[in-house]
Amino acid sequence: MTNVRHDWTRDEVRALLALPFPELIYLAQSVHREYFDPAEVQISTLLSIKTGGCPEDCGYCPQSAGADTGLSATKLMQVESVLAEARAAKASGATRFCMGAAWRSPKERDLDVVTAMVTGVKELGLETCATLGMLTADQAFKLKGAGLDYYNHNLDTSPEFYGEIITTRTYQDRLDTLAHVRDAGMKVCCGGIVGMGESEDDQAGLIATLAALPAHPESVPINLLVKVEGTKLEGVGATDPIQFVRLIAAARVTMPASHVRLSAGRESMSDEMQALCFLAGANSIFYGSCLLTTPNPQESADRALFERLGLRPESRPQ
Fold first, then answer.
1. Beta strands in the chain (DSSP E)
2. Helix, strand, coil % over all residues of the chain, rounded to 5
3. 61 labelled catalytic
4. Is 98 a catalytic residue?
5. Per residue in 141-175, pLDDT tens?
6. Are strands 192-194 and 259-262 parallel, antiparallel or unpaired?
7. Among 189, 190, 246, 266, which one carries the catalytic annotation?
8. What is the number of other CB atoms lying within 10 angstroms of the CB of residue 225?
9. β-sheet bridge partners, residue 96
10. Is the distance from CB of 89 to CB of 313 less than 8 angstroms?
11. Among 14, 105, 109, 196, which has the highest number of CB atoms less than 10 A from its own CB?
C-alpha cells in the first residue's frame, strides 16, 4: 500500500497541485482504491446545538458576534431534542452525528449537558462527533469518557494567512486543542476552508500542515467558502472549481487513509463538480438541508446524485 507519510513539505504539495489534471486525478484515484471502496461515501449529519453569539471574529462565520447577518443567538438545546434529531439522521442513512456549538470554548456546566447528548447519541448506534471550540486536556478526557468518537477543530487555512481571517485565537491554540483531543484517545476531524482570498501557496500550506501532523486527521473536511452577507468575507472572489478539485486530490494523496469530506459549499457546486471531487478521492459528505446556519443540498438531491454516479453510503464501522 502507499506509504502514509508525515513529512510532507509545502513544495511537495505545490508540485502535486501543478501536475497535469489527468495525472493528478489518476494518482489520487489509485491511492484512494488502496484504502477505500471507491463507490462508498461516508454520510454524516451536522446539527447546531447552540447557535450564534460566538465571541470569536472568524471572518467567514455568520455566528460570530461581530458579523451583521441578522442571526439570532440561541440557547443550548435540550438533550431529548438533540436525540430526536439523531434518530431522524440515522433513519435517513447517516452513520455519524455531529453536534456543533458556537462557543470560544465550552463552560463546564454546558459540557455536562453535551456529554449527556454524546452518550445518548452513542446509544442509538451512531458515531459521535462534536465541535465546541477550544478544549482543555481535562475537557477532552471528559468528552472521551462520555463516548465521543470524533472532535472537529479545523485549521482553516495556512499558518501565514490565518491572521487575515481570525485574530481572537492563534494557530497554536488550534494545534493545542488537536493535541488534547489526540491525547484523550479521540479521533480528529480537521480540515480547512477554500476561497477566503488565500493564495494557491496558502492552499498548499494548509494541506502540507495537515499532512505533517503526527497523526493524520481521520476525517479531513475541505470546505468551499459560503459567502454570507454581513460577514467580513462576503465580497471575496470566486474559487476556480478545477483548483478546488485539485485540493481534494492533494488531500487524498497526502492523507491516504483519511476520509476526505466534501463539506460546506456543496449547495453552490454543480453535480459535475461534485462528481469530479468524488473521482479525486472525496469519500464523505454532510447529509441534510442545513450545515449549522448555511444551506446544504436537499437529501433527495444527494440521493439522486448518488444514483447517477453509482455511489452508495458507507456502512457503519463495526
1. 40-50, 96-101, 127-131, 150-152, 187-189, 192-194, 219-224, 259-262, 284-286, 290-291, 294-295, 312-313
2. 40, 15, 45
3. yes
4. yes
5. 999 999 999 999 999 999 999 999 998 889 999 99
6. unpaired
7. 189
8. 23
9. 44, 127
10. no
11. 196
Residues 155 and 193: their CA atoms lie apart, in Å, by: 9
**Residues sharing a CB contact under 8 Å with residue 289, sequence separation 6 or more, in sequence order:** 295, 296, 297, 298, 299
Cβ-Cβ contacts under 8 Å for 234 (sequence gap 6 or more): 227, 228
Around 42, how many Cα atoms within 13 Å sit in the side-chain half-sphere?
Answer: 24
CA pair distance 280, 272, nearest whole angstrom: 12
Burial readout 163-178 (b: 16 or more C-beta within 10 A, e: otherwise): eebbeebebebbbbbb
CA distance 165 to 58: 6
Q: Tell me how far apart the alpha carbons of residues 155 and 289 are, in angstroms, rounded to a whole number.
A: 25
DSSP bridge partners of 98:
46, 129
The answer to whether the pTM exceeds 0.85 is yes
CA distances from 185 to 35, 176, 251, 281 (A): 22, 15, 23, 27
Has 290 been annotated as catalytic?
A: no
SS (HEC) of 181-205: HHHCCCEEECCEEECCCCCHHHHHH
Out of 96, 174, 252, 261, which one is annotated catalytic? 261
Which tens digit of pLDDT belongs to each residue from 26-72? Answer: 999 999 999 999 999 998 888 888 877 677 878 787 777 666 666 66
Return the percentage of the chain with pLDDT > 90, whole number: 64
- One-letter amino acid at 169 equals R
Q: Among this protein's residues, is 58 annotated catalytic?
A: yes
Q: Is 10 one of the annotated active-site residues of the chain? A: no
